[in-house]
């Protein structure tokens, strides 16, 4: 009986070998963490696989297109600056053009007279309309003038590591003056002749002179433009740095910077501007730069070379201030 009872107990007790879990089946915290991490990695991989993939050649095309887009944006900015500068330049010219007419009459006169006397004489004898003779050709030349000036200066400055330093400003301005004189000398000839004779028409002047005649006085125009541009833009960059002025800021500060640079530039280039006017006028009795210089100094001394400096200087600040604030 004892053996029978023991066997019954053994039959009711589960075998430890049958209930024993396989090795590593225990659920530990470390194993659960690893399992969750693997599930997250699988989900991330699946999500990434579902996104559209860029082909290698598409990626290369995008990288190659980036510089082209930058160049297009830069060109658009340059053209926009040219257009704005030309438009503002027209406004500045219209605002001070009567002063320019007075200056030209004073420079061509063999008798010394003040700006007020010259203005009064023009008004009494020829009327208000004479103060705007030659304005049309001048406005027509504004767009190419501003385009050449801006494009040349920016192009030359691109060769310098520091485009705003003195050497870069001086060189770019001088080269700009050369290019401007080539473009603007024909305009200057037509304008000067119409300012001195209110009965002349632009086409009449062009027919009378021909292409070669439109470059009369070019040596003086070249010297004037190079001197003015070199002095003006170099001093303007310096004044802008000292005053903390940026292009497009207030009209007041732009006019201060323009005056700081423009007054000495206009005054120093006045003798060359006077020689240009004499050489381009219809009643010129001598030809050539040095012959004209000798004639002027013989008649009125060295001081005669600065005739008309007042109107020339006084129109610089408002004209260039309007242009530079745009």
Automatic annotation (TrEMBL):
Q: Which GO terms describe its cellular component?
A: mitochondrial inner membrane
Solcar repeats by residue range: 76-159, 164-242, 249-326
What GO molecular function annotations does the UniProt record carry, in alphabetical order? transmembrane transporter activity
Compartments (UniProt record): Mitochondrion inner membrane
UniProt main location, coarse: mitochondrion
Residue spans of biased composition, Polar residues class? 1-18
Annotated region (Disordered) at 1-33
Q: Which Gene3D superfamilies match?
A: Mitochondrial carrier domain
Q: How does it sit in the membrane?
A: Multi-pass membrane protein
Q: Pfam families from the entry?
A: Mito_carr
Q: Which UniProt keywords apply?
A: Calcium, Membrane, Mitochondrion, Mitochondrion inner membrane, Repeat, Transmembrane, Transmembrane helix, Transport
* The keyword Cytoplasm belongs to this UniProt entry's keyword annotation: no
Similarity comment text for this entry: Belongs to the mitochondrial carrier (TC 2.A.29) family.
What this protein is called in its record is Mitochondrial Carrier (MC) Family
């Amino acid at each position: 009986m004892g053996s029978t009872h023991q066997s019954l107990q053994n039959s009711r007790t589960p075998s430890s070998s049958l209930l024993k879990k396989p090795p590593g089946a225990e659920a530990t915290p470390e194993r659960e963490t690893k399992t969750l991490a693997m599930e997250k990695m699988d989900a991330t991989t699946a999500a990434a696989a579902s996104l559209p993939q860029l082909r290698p050649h598409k990626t290369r095309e995008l990288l190659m297109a980036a510089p082209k887009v930058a160049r297009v944006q830069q060109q658009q900015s340059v053209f926009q600056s040219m257009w704005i500068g030309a438009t503002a330049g027209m406004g500045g010219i219209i605002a001070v053009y009567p002063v320019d007419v007075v200056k030209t009459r004073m420079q061509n006169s063999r008798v010394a007279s003040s700006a007020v006397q010259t203005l009064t004489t023009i008004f009494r004898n020829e009327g208000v309309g004479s103060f705007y003779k030659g304005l049309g050709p001048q406005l027509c030349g504004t767009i190419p003038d501003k385009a050449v000036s801006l494009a040349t200066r920016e192009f030359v400055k691109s060769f310098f590591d520091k485009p705003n330093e003195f050497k870069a400003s001086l060189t770019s301005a001088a080269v700009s003056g050369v290019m401007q004189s080539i473009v603007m000398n024909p305009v200057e000839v037509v304008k000067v002749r119409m300012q001195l004779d209110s009965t002349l028409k632009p086409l009449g002047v062009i027919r009378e002179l021909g292409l070669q005649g439109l470059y009369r006085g070019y040596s003086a125009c070249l010297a004037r433009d190079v001197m003015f541009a070199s002095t003006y833009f170099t001093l303007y960059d310096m004044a802008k740095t000292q005053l903390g002025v940026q292009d497009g800021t207030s009209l007041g500060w732009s006019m201060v910077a323009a005056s700081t640079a423009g007054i000495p530039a206009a005054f120093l280039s006045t003798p060359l501007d006077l020689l240009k006017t004499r050489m381009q006028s219809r009643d010129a009795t001598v030809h050539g730069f040095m012959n004209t210089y000798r004639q002027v100094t013989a008649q009125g001394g060295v001081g005669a070379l600065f005739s008309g400096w007042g109107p020339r200087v006084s129109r610089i600040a408002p004209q260039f201030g309007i242009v530079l604030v745009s």
